[in-house]
């Protein structure tokens, strides 16, 4: 490492000396991410000077150090529930899902894979003056997997999922909603995470037939401005709505990607159930009967019904699942949905 620093110094640039000092300071403070970020800036400078081999060696060393740090961390990182003025506005949810737990259309898989790659290599992009995509809009009917996918995205990136409580955010008092919205965005600047605005049309809707149209326009304008501000943490903002037709057209230009969800198809239902029946066997399943029972249920409900069938089989000391075992649990979920809908 000393020889490498000496080589840098021989190039005769003051910036290298400052970078070395900044790296040593960040290391002394235990700020590993800052240390790696500076190292990647050095790699970018080397690449611009035509020393691509050196640049690749530095990048490889950073990747190796990060991987080793991840493997050595046997204590999970604890993400805290927001407090103070944000309490009641933002709910913390630990992301327990990965994208492999969700069944998605190939187009959405490609979109999210590209987003994850950009976020995972965000330091590389910033070396060249670019920022990763982070503003996402999920469109689709209730139960199509939007919320589940948001959690899976957070899980893939090992980030906390923060759900914005719109019933607390939106108030009748003049300027209060915009003020609370600003608090939420300030939090995205301080705490890296995935921030989900569910029922997003409540904020981004184009409202023309309500008494509070002027106030909601102010809220919408504030949201548009806040979306555009630079974000050093690269926190991901996800808007999810069942009613894309209500959204103001100005919003669509502000998102980096828009993913359109559909209710699970028959093939997707089958794939999803198979994922959650592991590790038990299911050699003689009447899939047509099972798929019919799953119609109208969300991905989350289908997954939970499948897991419930597995849990029951384990407790009954069975290692093989039958069609009726799965159908019974799917029917339970359908009854729960019907009861909730009727009550509501």
Tell me about this structure.
By secondary structure, the protein is of the alpha/beta class. The chain folds into 3 domains: 2-72, no CATH class; 84-260, P-loop containing nucleotide triphosphate hydrolases (Rossmann fold); 266-343, Helicase, Ruva Protein, domain 3, CATH 1.10.8.60. 57% of the residues lie in helices and 8% in strands. It contains 16 helices and 6 strands. The protein has helices spanning 2-10, 14-28, 32-48, 52-72, 106-120, 122-127, 146-157, 166-169, 176-190, 201-204, 213-228, 249-252, 266-277, 287-294, 299-315, 323-343, and strands at residues 90-93, 135-139, 161-164, 194-198, 236-241, 257-260. A 6-stranded mixed sheet has the order 1-3-4-5-2-6. Helix 2 packs antiparallel against helix 3 and helix 9 (176-190) runs parallel beside helix 11. It is globular and about 70 Å long. It starts with a helix and ends with a helix. The model is unreliable at 1-14 and 70-78 (pLDDT under 50).
Question: How would you concisely characterize the structure shown here?
Answer:
The protein has 344 residues and is of the alpha/beta class.
């Amino acid at each position: 490492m000393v020889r490498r620093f000496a080589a840098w110094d021989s190039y005769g640039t003051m910036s290298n000396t400052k970078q070395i000092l900044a790296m040593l300071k960040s290391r002394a403070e235990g700020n590993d991410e800052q240390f790696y970020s500076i190292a990647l800036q050095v790699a970018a400078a080397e690449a611009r000077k035509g020393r691509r081999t050196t640049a690749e060696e530095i990048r490889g060393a950073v990747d190796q150090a990060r991987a080793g740090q991840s493997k050595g961390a046997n204590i999970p990182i604890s993400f805290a529930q927001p407090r103070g003025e944000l309490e009641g506005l933002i709910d913390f949810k630990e992301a327990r899902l990965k994208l492999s737990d969700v069944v998605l259309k190939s187009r959405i898989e490609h979109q999210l894979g590209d987003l994850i790659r950009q976020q995972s290599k965000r330091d590389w992009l910033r070396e060249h003056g670019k920022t990763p995509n982070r503003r996402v809009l999920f469109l689709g009917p209730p139960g199509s997997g939007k919320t589940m996918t948001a959690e899976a995205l957070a899980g893939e990136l090992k980030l906390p999922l923060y759900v914005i409580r719109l019933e607390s955010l939106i108030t009748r008092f003049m300027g209060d909603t915009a003020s609370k919205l600003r608090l939420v965005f300030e939090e995205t600047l301080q705490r890296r995470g995935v921030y989900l605005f569910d029922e997003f049309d409540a904020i981004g809707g184009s409202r023309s037939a309500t008494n509070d149209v002027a106030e909601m326009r102010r809220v919408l304008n504030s949201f548009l401005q806040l979306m555009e501000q630079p974000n050093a943490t690269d926190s991901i903002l996800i808007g999810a709505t069942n009613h894309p037709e209500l959204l103001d057209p100005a919003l669509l230009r502000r998102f980096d990607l828009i993913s359109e969800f559909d209710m699970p198809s028959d093939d997707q239902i089958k794939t999803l159930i198979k994922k959650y029946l592991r590790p038990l066997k299911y050699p003689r399943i009447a899939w047509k009967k099972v798929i019919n029972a799953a119609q109208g249920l969300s991905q989350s409900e289908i997954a939970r019904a499948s897991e419930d069938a597995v849990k029951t089989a384990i407790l009954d000391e069975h290692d093989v699942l039958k069609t009726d075992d799965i159908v019974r649990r799917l029917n339970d979920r359908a009854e729960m949905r019907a009861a909730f809908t009727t009550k509501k």
